[in-house]
């Protein structure tokens, strides 16, 4: 067993401890009988000097991640499997009838929206803008080697043809390989984003969302905005009884329809009190949703981040994922996709029914739009 610890005052680093001599009841790989159900196990940390508890967490079994992008009978599919965040992803790509016009196969940064009647474009490969705990950093494509050469870390996370080999001049491609730079969990997960074949002119030829594979139906909820701020926020998650450590996939499409120019740095949060039917009084939603009573003292602002999501309130989406910018509707929607394992759609901490609130630009406090999340 291994444990990763973070000091509250230094959230950018972790210390790792390997614990030997784990009792067989805790070891699911141990032979000679069944192990204890892990939902009954709790790991506790105690201050040796004072004997006071410092923290506790329920021990869950990590479930392997599976995802598939189905491009239909004519074009085939791409299947991805990752046993754990510490192992490479198995990529199985079988695409046909590309008609020799595709120039690249990529995973884009956003998903295909339910209102999209054609593949969004032009699209660039998903290329995380900054390093996170998973160790991936933005890649300058101009500095990457030719397609199919070099190593996977020299290409953007979503640049499949760069990492796996060229598709230009091919009618079909078949790949079966391990990719150490394609996460299926965590903040840089590619699950929920779109897989697309792109032509030499940058136009998207065929596309499909990369959906999580689960034995149970996905749970979805959506908040719809139709005031000065127009758009929707859709949250999708696998069944949490099947995979309590799974991610929620948050998709946003936003724009101003009241004539104002583009704005930047809007905080957005889940708040604790639902809007009354027919009400648009965002002030009535009270404070951020914080079911785990996270300490919001003076150090909160510098501790809550994508690097330390457990130091964030469950409703602090901006703290974990960053602020959003909003254009005028005449120029189109601002599209975002986030993976967030701290948003629940079932159980006692479900956010369904709660309001999503958007604040004024430049990190300002005034609330400019809000809507309740409704089940789909």
TrEMBL record:
Region (Disordered): 123-154
GO molecular function, one term: metal ion binding
Gene3D superfamilies, per database record: Superoxide dismutase, copper/zinc binding domain
Transmembrane segments: none
InterPro entries for this protein: Cu-only_SOD, SOD-like_Cu/Zn_dom_sf
Biological process, per Gene Ontology: superoxide metabolic process
PANTHER family: AGAP001623-PA (PTHR20910), SUPEROXIDE DISMUTASE COPPER_ZINC BINDING DOMAIN-CONTAINING PROTEIN (PTHR20910:SF1)
UniProt-recorded name of the protein: Superoxide dismutase copper/zinc binding domain-containing protein
């Amino acid at each position: 067993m291994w444990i990763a610890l973070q000091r509250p005052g230094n959230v950018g680093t972790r210390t790792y401890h390997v614990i030997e001599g784990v009792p067989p009841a805790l070891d699911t790989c141990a032979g000679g009988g069944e192990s204890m159900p892990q939902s009954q196990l709790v790991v506790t940390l105690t201050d040796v000097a004072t004997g006071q508890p410092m923290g506790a967490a329920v021990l869950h079994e990590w479930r392997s991640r599976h995802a598939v992008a189905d491009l239909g009978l004519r074009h085939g599919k791409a299947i991805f499997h990752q046993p754990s965040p510490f192992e490479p992803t198995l990529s199985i790509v079988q695409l046909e009838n590309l008609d020799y016009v595709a120039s690249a196969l990529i995973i884009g940064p956003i998903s295909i929206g339910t209102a999209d009647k054609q593949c969004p474009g032009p699209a660039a490969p998903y290329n995380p803008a900054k390093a996170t705990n998973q160790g991936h950093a933005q890649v300058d494509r101009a500095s990457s080697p030719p397609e199919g050469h070099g190593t996977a870390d020299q290409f953007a996370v979503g640049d499949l043809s760069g990492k796996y080999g060229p598709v230009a001049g091919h009618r079909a491609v078949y790949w079966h390989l391990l990719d150490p730079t394609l996460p299926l969990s965590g903040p840089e997960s590619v699950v929920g984003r779109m897989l697309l074949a792109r032509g030499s002119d940058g136009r998207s030829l065929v596309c499909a969302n990369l959906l999580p594979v689960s034995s149970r139906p996905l749970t979805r909820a959506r908040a719809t905005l139709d005031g000065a701020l127009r758009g929707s926020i859709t949250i999708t998650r696998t069944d949490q009884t099947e995979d309590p450590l799974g991610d929620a996939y948050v998709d946003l499409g936003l724009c101003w329809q009241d004539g104002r120019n583009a704005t930047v740095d809007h905080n957005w949060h889940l708040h604790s009190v639902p809007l009354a039917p027919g009400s648009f009084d965002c002030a009535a939603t009270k404070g951020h949703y914080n079911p785990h009573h996270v300490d919001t003292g003076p150090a909160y602002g510098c501790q809550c981040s994508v690097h330390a999501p457990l130091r964030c309130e469950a409703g602090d989406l901006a703290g974990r994922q960053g602020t959003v910018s909003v254009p005028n509707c005449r120029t189109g929607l601002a599209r975002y996709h986030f993976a967030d394992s701290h948003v629940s759609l079932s159980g006692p901490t479900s956010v369904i029914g709660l309001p999503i609130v958007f604040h004024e630009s430049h990190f300002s406090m005034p609330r400019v739009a809000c809507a309740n999340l409704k089940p789909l």
